[in-house]
Structure formats: structure tokens, C-alpha cells
Design goal:
With about 350 residues, the protein is an alpha/beta fold. Helices cover about 40% and strands about 10% of the residues. Strand 7, helix 8 and strand 8 form a beta-alpha-beta unit. The longest helix has 18 residues. The chain starts with about 25 loop residues before the first strand and ends in a 17-residue tail after the last helix.
């Protein structure tokens, strides 16, 4: 079942901010179970500005998963580990048993993802109750063993990264946890700048990422509460991180990655997608949902995205209200055609330059 989203206050109008000294930057698309799955990865990477995606977690317990279990979460594995727009996707594993994680990582690596990521941040109670996700932040030594087991189980040229929160109940062991991940052999670390106890409540504590950055030697990516260009620039300044991971902010504003790049590179002429450009993408998203999601969940998926989009686009509020009480996917299909016209599904863009893996 889909979780009900709370009503979100509108964001201010988007502006392009200047940065005095632009430098290189990678923008990653976050994993969010029940929201940022293969369908939104496909659509958001068509918009542009994203260098790499991380899948929702693949839960590892005490068994070796069949190949179909990995492909179900990461269908991009059948297309060279990339979205239709050509953006690399790292597959994320969640588990706490080093040996079992290693076995599953080895099988996953054979399917050709753009890398393997390890989840040390999921705050869900059902996950934490079984010792997964953020619960491991209470056991840095075990975190190190999990990372080391995965690193040793996959080819040397397969990137292994991790994503963590600042801690479980508090952030007192944040640096210790990050150092444990590094000691295990991870090559990159994303830090969500909140603890498990914070959940998704603002603010995000970007200054603590700066503390971690001083204590580790691998690249760090800052994540958490980046809704606008101003948030992104402030996060980079406070955290000291060049690279960012975007989650709910880019779901609400699909052009956010492009706008951040325009700000960093002082590009006042960068085209940013407006509502008309999103209409065919909404239809393409609905096509993916109809083809892959059970009928009883389809309407909820569209309403979920529209609920975020109305933070940025006034037109999305009207669209959301039009379908808010509709549960029949056939009615939604008819409404989309009537509201937006029978537009062809947009083709994903052809990458014009090599994308970071």
C-alpha cells in the first residue's frame, strides 16, 4: 500500500542563482522506496541534469535471491545498467549478514549494474526491527564487515558505495560510522544529514557532513532537504561537498538538477522545463505505471507524483484536484487524454557526452 503524503507548502518561484567560482559537480538521484522507483528514474532522467541513480533497496535476509528479484527492483539491469536516457543506475542492497550480502552482491554484479550501493540509512521500523538500514548505525564494526564482504565479493572494477544517516538516536557516532564504511573499502559515501530519529523532518544538519568530510578520505555526497537551487548552493557551502543527491526536491521540481547546474555554471540561458514540457512526461509516466503496476495501485502512483508537483507548478494543483478522488485507472487515462491531448510518448534523449558511472 502507498503511504499517504502530507500536504506540502508551496515552494517559492524558481530563480537561477549565481556562484562566483563554479566547479565540477555530480548530481545523483536518490533511492526512495515507494516513490523513486524505475518509473520515475526513467522520467526524471529524461528531463536531464542527473549523472547517476541509485535504486530502491533490494532486501537481503538469509537467502541467495534469484536473478528475477534483482531485475524486479532494477529493470535497468536488462539494458546495461542504465535508464532509457542513458544514465547509470547503481543497485542498492540492504542487509546485515556479511556472508549473505556478499553472496547476493556477487550474483548482482554478474547482472551488470553500474555499481553496488549499501543501505545504512533506511528509517522504516519494519526494516530496523530486523537489524537493517539505519539500525546498523549502532554497530559500526558490523557496518565495516558488511562493506568489506561486498567489496571482496565483486570484481575490482565494480564501484561499491554506501548511504548512511548521521546516526540512529543521535549523531554522536557519525564519524565512527563513516570511518567504518571507509575501512570496509567503499569508494564513495552519501550522507543523509539527519538521524533515524529525525526521520524526514526539517532541518537537515549539513554542517555535520562537513565534520565527516574532514575525517574520511573518500568522496562524500551531501543529501537531505534540498528543495531549491538556494538549498543546493547553501548545502554545498555548509557541507563542503561538491556532489549532491536529490530526492523529494527533484520529484517536486523535475528541472531542479538542470537549474542547479545553471546556477553553478552561471548559465542564464539554460532551458528549464515548464508545465507544458511536463505534460507528455506525465503521460509517459502513466504509461509505465499502467504497464507495470497492479490496477489497484495505479491511481495512487499518479496522485502521489502530482501531490509533489503542485509544490512547484500551480497547474499541478488543478490536475491533482481533478483526479484526487478517482481510483479507476481507465478514468484517469481518459482524463489525461482529455486534459493534455493524445500526445505521443516522448523518446528518451540520446546522451551527448559520456556519463559518470
Amino acid at each position: 500500500m502507498l503511504r499517504r503524503l502530507r500536504t506540502l507548502a508551496p515552494l517559492p518561484p524558481r530563480r537561477v542563482y549565481r556562484m562566483r567560482h563554479p566547479f565540477a559537480m555530480n548530481i545523483l538521484l536518490a533511492p526512495m522506496e515507494g516513490l523513486l522507483d524505475f518509473a520515475l528514474r526513467d522520467i526524471l532522467t529524461r528531463v536531464g541534469g542527473i549523472d547517476r541513480c541509485v535504486s530502491e533497496f533490494i532486501r537481503v535476509t538469509d537467502t541467495l535471491l534469484p536473478e528475477r528479484a534483482f531485475r524486479r527492483i532494477v529493470p535497468e539491469l536488462t539494458h546495461g545498467g542504465r535508464t532509457p536516457a542513458g544514465v547509470p543506475v547503481r543497485a542498492q542492497l540492504l542487509g546485515s549478514d556479511p556472508a549473505c550480502m556478499a553472496d547476493n552482491a556477487a550474483r548482482l554484479a554478474g547482472l551488470g549494474p553500474a555499481g553496488i550501493d549499501i543501505n545504512f540509512g533506511c528509517p522504516a521500523k519494519v526494516v530496523n526491527r530486523h537489524g537493517g538500514g539505519a539500525a546498523l548505525l549502532k554497530e559500526p564494526e558490523l557496518m565495516a564487515r558488511v562493506v568489506a564482504a561486498v567489496r571482496q565479493a565483486v570484481p575490482a572494477d565494480m564501484p561499491v558505495s554506501a548511504k548512511m544517516r548521521l546516526g540512529f538516536d543521535d549523531d554522536s557516532r557519525a564519524i565512527e560510522c563513516a570511518q567504518a564504511i571507509v575501512s570496509g573499502g567503499a569508494g564513495e559515501l552519501v550522507v543523509h544529514a539527519r538521524t533515524k530519529a529525525h526521520g524526514y523532518r526539517p532541518p537537515a544538519y549539513w554542517e555535520r557532513i562537513a565534520d565527516i568530510r574532514e575525517a574520511v578520505t573518500i568522496p562524500l555526497v551531501a543529501n537531505g532537504e534540498i528543495w531549491t537551487v538556494a538549498d543546493a548552493l547553501r548545502c554545498r557551502e555548509v557541507s563542503g561537498c561538491t556532489d549532491l543527491m536529490l530526492g523529494r526536491g527533484i520529484v517536486a521540481d523535475p528541472g531542479l538538477a538542470l537549474a542547479i547546474r545553471a546556477a553553478v555554471h552561471d548559465d542564464h540561458d539554460a532551458p528549464l522545463p515548464g508545465w507544458p514540457a511536463l505534460q507528455p512526461l506525465l503521460q509517459a509516466f502513466w504509461g509505465l505505471i499502467e504497464a507495470n503496476i497492479e490496477p489497484r495501485h495505479r491511481a495512487g502512483r499518479l496522485k502521489q507524483w502530482l501531490n509533489y508537483l503542485r509544490k512547484r507548478y500551480p497547474e499541478a494543483e488543478e490536475a491533482y484536484q481533478a483526479v484526487r478522488t478517482v481510483t479507476d485507472s481507465r478514468v484517469i487515462s481518459a482524463w489525461l487524454t482529455q486534459a493534455f491531448g493524445a500526445q505521443p510518448t516522448p523518446e528518451p534523449p540520446t546522451p551527448v557526452m559520456p556519463l559518470a558511472a
